[in-house]
Amino acid sequence: MERRTKEIMILSIFTSLLCFSDVVTAFHASPLATAQQVRSTRLSMAQEDLVSVRSYLEENYPSFHKLIDKNEEAWKKLSDGDGYTMFVPVDAAFAKLGDKKLKQLEDIRNVEATNKVGAYHCINEIVTFDELYNSGGIITLGGEIPVDRSTSGGMFGVGGNEDGGVVINGAKITGSMEVGPGTIHEVDGLVVPQIIWRYMDQLRIPGSS
Q1: Sorting pLDDT into bands at 50, 70 and 90, what band is 140?
Q2: Which of 89, 127, 144, 180 could be stapled to 85 by a disulfide with Cβ–Cβ 3.0 to 4.6 Å?
Q3: Count of CB atoms within 10 A of residue 22's CB?
């Protein structure tokens, strides 16, 4: 009888230890699980927010939407960032490119260069107008581009006075707005460096002009 009692006591202690171990494991696992859930939730929210941005571009800037919409690498980097900034050219800016450049952008064989063009218009963090005004340059998903203060007056670009505006690699900001988790700066031209166009010219894809 005494031996049986000892066995029961040992079994009871062992069971208690197992329960305590489960509690400790749950305690330590919970913060990690919660962190993963939070990150997953944030990522899901960011992706949903960017869906609304894509819809906004399609409705208001169809030419730029056509350029950037299929660039999933750029959208992925934007969703991973802390907000976003886009330099979005008006449709008239694309019209001024001329038929040759428009065909180069639309040619599926130029997809790598075309994606690079789109990437130069995106930043995976929020950059305000005032920050651009005081920057002198900015690093986009495509690379670094110059930022200048616009001027008015003078002749042939000489002798003008700063007018409070901002020019992104030759394209002037004509308006800024918050859309979803970031900022869109409307510009009157594409901000891509000329070397990208020269690169596409040198590809000499068969059948292209």
Answers
A1: very high
A2: 127
A3: 10
Q: Give the pLDDT confidence of 92-123 residue by residue, as tens digits.
A: 999 999 999 999 999 988 999 999 999 999 99
Q: List all residues 6 or more positions away from 144 whose beta carbon is below 8 Å from its beta carbon.
A: 137, 138
DSSP 120-139: TTEESB---HHHHHTTSEEE
Mean pLDDT of 40-56: 70
Query: Which of 143, 196, 132, 141 lies closest to 168, judged by CA?
Result: 132
Other C-beta atoms lying within 10 Å of the C-beta of residue 102: 13
| Cα angle: 3, vertex 5, 9; to 5 degrees | 115
What are the distances in angstroms from CA 35 to CA 24, 38, 39, 78?
Answer: 18, 5, 6, 21
The contacts of residue 92 (CB under 8 Å, 6+ apart) are 188
Q: What are phi and psi of 82, to 5 degrees?
A: -95, 80
Q: What's at 178, amino acid-wise?
A: E
